[in-house]
Amino acid sequence: MHKSETLSGNEPDIPFREVIGFANDHAGFPLRPPVLDLLGRHSGRIIDVGTQSEEPVDFPDVTRRAVQTILDKQTDRVILLCGTGAGACIAANKVRGIRAALCGDAATAEGARRWNDANVLALSLRTTSEAVLGEILDAWFATAASPDADDRANIGHLADIEPA
Question: Is residue 163 situated within a structural domain?
């Protein structure tokens, strides 16, 4: 049974998602359990391509596997978790069709979804507390892309400058 809201109380209405992609590198590993717990509340299935330990891995490789789930139409949203979030965000944005945003607060996550139709959320283990993490994910999943013609045109312009 699908829920129209994944959290109770005064939380925003968060549509339940069938599938969410997820990846972490070794630096993001310590925050992996609470992120997966929160994602499980928002989705029926998590495509997890992240590392299962703190053994070093190359974040561009992990990121590529994660965003490939969007390109293969297995999901339309992916969460990336690494030490700063910056490397994963940069790597994701090298891929055509991916609009990744590094978000450290709920307002940025909401704006990334609303005005940029971000399909990848990068998170930093080093600067994101578990409490803020929940707020960021709630805002990102609760926010739809703006239907405004000007906003859609800007997203089109982003596609025009994507790498080939």
Answer: no
